[in-house]
Design a protein that fits this description.
Strand content: 15-25%
Oligomer: single chain
Shape: globular
Largest sheet: 10 strands, mixed
Number of helices: 23
Distance between the termini: 32 Å
Structural class: alpha+beta
Length: about 950
């Protein structure tokens, strides 16, 4: 029996929980001096999602008075264990009842009775989010007792209460894995390998297990088969066609990334146990519309498959019972951006293994959903080589799922939905895997329950059966994907899958080009040809980590009139994983004709991270002038000359981090308030002797003997309070700002949420980002009638051409920039004395990419402005500055706004106090906004 909580801990936990719920404590709970005898039970495992009866028997040795007997569970009377009544209250009827009263058996002194453990939450599906945050408090070992107070005897047995029988807490995973390893060592000679990919944000291991027939199979795949597949896929295709492939295995990766969708972890554990220890596994499926039993011979399966178990990408979330990681990020929206350590580690391993089949186990969609998805599809997928097999594998999983659970149907969005469950973004783990040629499926179990677990476990068996029965054909298609990449082929067979909202085939957006994919992407890193060498080098690091081949010029190369110096990074697109590279580097698509989309789709690292990138469409443009690279070293800054001061350009985020470090250490930092000579407005000026102490930062410096003739402001370290998203807080921490928990202690309040307290703003600055902040400020009346905004729908997304005005808050930016939003909003008018910072371009092609029905209304409108008040300052951005920590090219707008709001003239100017300008106007736009799309679980 699993020991989830030791006795005292479990007892105190139950006491605390019921004290919170105002449930009375039984007097018998404190009586610990009983003589204990055995209580026999027909079961010791109880469930929160299945009603179960427990038959109990005890012999007290005497003819006790039956009416004096009392049942206790966890030291409490059964009547005190009440059902959930809503919120965090448990005031309903008792969920444990006596359905057969204690009675003597056949004239003996043995007493028998029957209890029913019903449904604590009144339902067998605990996926409701309110319930989902609470039920785990009840999981544990409890004492079930029948007490005779007259004889001072207690018949007792320890029983386990679980949500379903196979649930594991995170702390139980590694011991369970170790136990299977130990048993397998005795039972068979299968190959098992445990790895920890690294540590989570809070330092927990990312548990990963490889299961194969033997080590030779793993080594052959990783060192022979896969490298050949990526470099020379045609040779393997020929062997398959000629029947000369011989013995080979393909990887099946099973994954969970939302650990509060708990079945995804536990189904993997059971699948791992079965395939590691059993000789045969029998389950039901459907054939010719009839249910039938199928038996997998495990040794035969391992002749075809290498199993990869990523039990959960988010250990901290498993411990906290949350969807998000410890930084507040949904990791299933970070597989492309990879700002979080967990996704960086896992995606690197996906790239390393390049699985054939990828199952991402989720919950909870009532229809038992199994992908593939609706359109629009990401054009970087070779969809014609994925779709048919993914449909068939989805059916195989669904048929197994409903044949081994109480469910009688499943849904495949590609067949059963019109839109709204798309794979346009590679944010999701399964979609990211598809860029590696995997059959990527998100699987949504219908319920958090024993039934939900049973269905999820069976999908793993169904997928395994499908792969083993079709291995050669499936592998041929994956090799064809790689072959297209290596040959630079843009096969028109994909076009029928890329459709518009009317269902018309539009194919890949090629414009005037014959090939959707360029021949090369060029990433300069010299400071003369690259506005942000640090982010450019980080992009190369990213590509290498994700299995993309990158080269570097060995001498100057001239292409299309441009000279690329030695050391320029080149991404040749005639490679197996060109689809992944292109998905991250191309501009993106406009899919605004669709009525529903699941999540933002723009990736475009160069524009959202802020570095220069060239697309080259000349064949063999860099032939014989490059060498392949396998690692990079991030650049750092250099002090220039021996002058007493250094001018640091306001061009990158690492410089902002450096400035914050200098301020934390009490160093003098000035900011140029005007442009003069080689000093630009917004540049930072520091002492050379101070700068020499900071070697690990990237900055672009120039020397200055004196800056006495330049108007500057001395910076102080701002105290910043953040209201709104965890992602915004993360971004500001990444920039090195000192965050405070209370707005009362802050110099600057930065918010992308709806919280806005006029009365607490005196003497502070406020930086509002996005539609909720726009609305909160509007409703406060602090800016009067002169300020208004409009929007289509929160969540509408776009990469926009913008005109940026010359201002200290926009220093470091060009007059024309691409800015990003997921707010679907714009500012229609600004107060009389406000200064406009940025506007949407008036050009017809202002909208570059994204999903924003009705975006034409934003054309030419204001995106950002700042307003100085007598004792405060308000700056508002209609667009996003820190969306999921990916829009890093906009971070310096945040930094500029924060620095300019503390101790500078900008913060001191203005007319009228905040309180004077606030009013109780009734022209509120909306008190709340509905989020776009479903919550893809």
């Amino acid at each position: 029996m699993k020991k989830r909580f030791s006795g005292l801990l479990a007892f105190l936990l139950v006491l605390a929980l019921f004290a919170q719920s105002a449930i009375p404590v039984s007097a018998t709970e404190t009586a610990e001096n009983y003589e204990v005898i055995e209580l026999e039970t027909n079961r010791t495992l109880l469930s929160l999602t299945e009603t179960r009866t427990v038959e109990v028997m005890a012999d007290f040795g005497d003819n006790v008075e039956l009416s004096q007997l009392e049942f206790l569970f966890g030291g409490k009377s059964l009547s005190d264990w009440k059902k959930w009544s809503g919120g965090t209250s448990y005031n309903g009827d008792p969920f444990i009842t006596v359905i057969e009263e204690p009675h003597f058996v056949n004239g003996t002194t043995t007493i028998k009775a029957t209890l029913e453990f019903g449904l604590l939450y009144g339902r067998d599906n605990l996926s409701n989010r309110t319930i989902r945050t609470q039920y785990q408090q009840f999981i544990g070992d409890y004492e079930l007792a029948l007490v005779d107070t007259a004889s001072n005897k207690k018949a007792a047995q320890t029983v386990e209460l679980n949500v379903y029988d196979q649930f594991h807490f995170y702390e139980e995973l590694k011991p369970t894995i170790d136990q299977v390893f130990d048993e397998a060592e005795v039972a068979n000679d299968r190959y098992l390998e445990y790895q920890s990919f690294g540590k989570s944000v809070e330092g927990r291991d990312l548990h990963f297990v490889v299961l194969a027939k033997d080590k030779e199979a793993v080594d052959k795949y990783l060192n022979e088969t896969l490298p050949t597949a990526l470099e020379d896929p045609e040779s393997l295709l020929e062997k398959l066609e000629d029947g000369e492939m011989g013995d080979y295995q393909v990887p099946v990766w099973i994954n969970n990334i939302h650990p509060d969708e708990v079945e995804g972890v536990d189904a993997q554990v059971e699948l791992f146990k079965k395939f590691a220890l059993e000789d045969e596994i029998t389950f039901n499926t459907i054939e010719n519309k009839q249910e039938k039993a199928v038996t997998l011979n495990v040794d035969d399966v391992l002749d075809d498959v290498i199993f990869l178990y990523m039990f959960t990408n988010n250990p901290d979330g498993r411990v906290a019972n949350t969807r998000a990681n410890a930084n507040g990020f949904d990791l299933n929206r970070d597989n492309h951006y990879q700002t979080q350590i967990e996704t960086q580690e896992v995606t690197q391993e996906i790239a390393k293994w390049t699985p054939l089949s990828f199952l991402d186990m989720h919950g909870y969609v009532p229809g038992f959903l199994i992908e593939p998805t609706t359109p629009p599809h990401n054009p970087n997928f070779e969809y014609d080589l994925l779709y048919g097999n993914m449909i068939e594998q989805a059916h195989a999983m669904g048929e197994a799922g409903i044949s081994n659970s109480a469910y009688d149907s499943y849904e495949i969005p590609a067949l059963d939905y019109g839109d709204g469950w798309d794979d346009m973004t590679p944010a999701y783990t399964a979609m990211y895997a598809m860029l590696h040629g995997s059959l990527g499926h998100t699987i949504e179990t219908p319920a958090l329950s024993q039934n939900g677990y049973d269905a999820m476990y069976a999908t793993g068996l169904g997928a395994t059966l499908y792969v083993t029965e079709n291995k050669d054909e499936l592998y041929k298609n994956q090799l064809e994907i790689f072959k297209r990449g290596v040959n630079g082929e843009d096969n028109r067979a994909v076009d029928e899958y890329f459709v518009n909202a009317a269902g018309e085939s539009i194919g890949r957006t090629r414009g005037e080009n014959e090939n959707f994919f360029p021949e090369y992407y060029v990433i300069p890193v010299d400071e003369n040809g690259q506005k942000n060498p640090l982010e450019a080098t980080k992009m190369v690091e990213y590509l290498l980590r994700n299995g993309v081949k990158v080269e570097q010029t060995t001498k100057t190369a001239k292409v299309n009139g441009a000279a690329y110096p030695k050391g320029t990074y080149i991404v040749p697109m005639n490679q197996a994983k060109r689809g992944l590279a292109n998905a991250m580097l191309y501009k993106g698509d406009d899919v605004s004709d669709w009525g529903a989309m699941y999540d933002p789709i723009v990736v475009n690292f160069s524009d959202l991270r802020g570095f220069d990138l060239d697309e080259v469409r000349v064949e063999n443009a860099f032939a014989k002038v490059t060498k392949e690279v396998d690692s990079v070293t991030l650049p750092t800054g250099d002090v220039v000359g021996k002058a007493p001061k250094q001018i640091l350009s306001n061009t990158n985020n690492d410089t902002v981090k450096l400035i914050n470090e200098l301020l934390k250490d009490g160093k003098v930092v000035e900011k140029a308030m005007e442009a003069k000579g080689k000093v630009k407005k917004g540049d930072y000026i520091v002492n050379t002797k101070d700068l020499l102490q900071y070697e690990d930062f990237y900055y672009e410096a120039s020397s200055a003997g004196t800056t006495q003739n330049i108007k500057t402001e001395k910076l102080t370290l701002p105290k910043v309070a953040v209201t709104g998203s965890a992602q915004l807080k993360f971004s500001l921490k990444e920039l090195g700002f000192e965050l405070v928990s209370s707005t009362a202690d802050a110099d600057v309040v930065v918010s992308d949420g709806s919280s806005f307290d006029v009365n607490s703003l005196d003497g502070k600055a406020y930086v509002g980002i996005g539609v909720y902040a726009l609305n909160a400020v509007k409703n406060s009346g602090v800016l009067g009638e002169g300020y208004s905004f409009d929007y289509t729908s929160p969540g509408h997304e776009g990469l926009l051409k913008a005109n940026v005005n010359d201002h200290i808050l926009t220093s470091g930016y060009e007059a024309s920039e691409l800015l990003y939003t997921t707010n679907g909003a714009w500012i229609t008018s600004v107060p009389k004395n406000a200064q406009v910072l940025a506007t949407v371009s008036n050009s017809d092609d202002f909208y570059v990419a994204g999903w924003w029905p009705g975006h034409d209304a934003a054309k030419g409108q204001t995106l950002a402005f700042t307003q100085n008040l007598e004792d405060s300052n308000i700056t508002l951005f209609a667009n996003d500055l820190a969306f999921r920590a990916h829009t890093q090219s906009s971070y310096r707008l945040l930094a500029n706004s924060i620095f300019a709001s503390v101790g500078t003239e900008v913060a001191k100017k203005g007319k009228g106090s905040v309180k004077d300008k606030a009013n109780k106007q009734n022209n509120k736009v909306e008190k709340s906004f509905l989020e776009k799309g479903r919550d893809r679980e």
